[in-house]
Each structure stands twice: as structure tokens, then as C-alpha cells.
Design goal:
Required for the assembly of the V0 complex of the vacuolar ATPase (V-ATPase) in the endoplasmic reticulum. One of its GO terms (biological process) is vacuolar proton-transporting V-type ATPase complex assembly. The chain is mainly α and about 100 residues long. It is built from 4 helices and no strands. Helices cover about 75% and strands about 0% of the residues. The radius of gyration is 27 Å and the shape is elongated.
């Protein structure tokens, strides 16, 4: 469980820092060739790359989650038992419930 939380935390932090780093690098001319772009083009390109970077981080997180072994996670036995009992119990009909409601009044 701790590994899952760590992966989620790291992915969440990367989703914040990577786009901000891209925007910072473009705005402070840290990327070679960005000085030759017009301000409009630089804003457009940096925003586009920031959005793409968030999607890459999300895809990376999904891949990490898919690679995690599924046999490691077992459901709570009490929850499973309660779910089985709730499935086997007959559900009251609407007519029965309405007649019970009338009897209570």
C-alpha cells in the first residue's frame, strides 16, 4: 500500500513541476533556440509542451499501475462476505414496500 501512495505522490508532484519547469525554461530563454521565436510562438509552444508533459506523466503513472502485480492486492474478507450475503438476500418488491408503508401510516 505504501508503494502505491509513493507512486501517486511522485506522479502528482511531477504533474505540477514538469509543466512549470517547461514554462520557466521558455520564459527565461534556457532552451536553445527559444530566443529566435516570437513571443506569440513561444507562448504557444511552451503551453503546448506543458500540456503534453502532463499527459506523458499521466501515461507513465498508468503504465506503472498496470505493471503492479494484481495478486498482491486482496479484498477485505468481511467486505466480500457482506457482499455475498447482500446478493443472496431477496429484494422486496415495490408493491410490498408500498403496502408496508401504508400499513405503517
Amino acid at each position: 500500500m505504501l508503494g502505491v501512495v509513493n507512486k501517486f505522490f511522485i506522479a502528482s508532484m511531477l504533474m505540477w513541476t514538469v509543466p512549470l519547469a517547461i514554462l520557466y525554461a521558455f520564459n527565461h530563454n534556457l532552451i536553445p533556440g527559444s530566443t529566435e521565436l516570437s513571443p506569440y510562438s513561444m507562448t504557444l509552444l511552451s503551453g503546448f509542451l506543458a500540456v503534453i508533459s502532463v499527459n506523458v506523466v499521466i501515461a507513465f503513472y498508468i503504465c506503472m499501475a498496470m505493471k503492479e502485480p494484481s495478486d498482491k492486492h486482496e479484498p477485505d474478507p468481511k467486505f466480500v462476505a457482506d457482499a455475498k450475503v447482500s446478493i443472496t438476500q431477496p429484494e422486496p418488491n415495490e408493491a410490498d414496500s408500498s403496502s408496508n408503508h401504508v400499513k405503517r401510516e
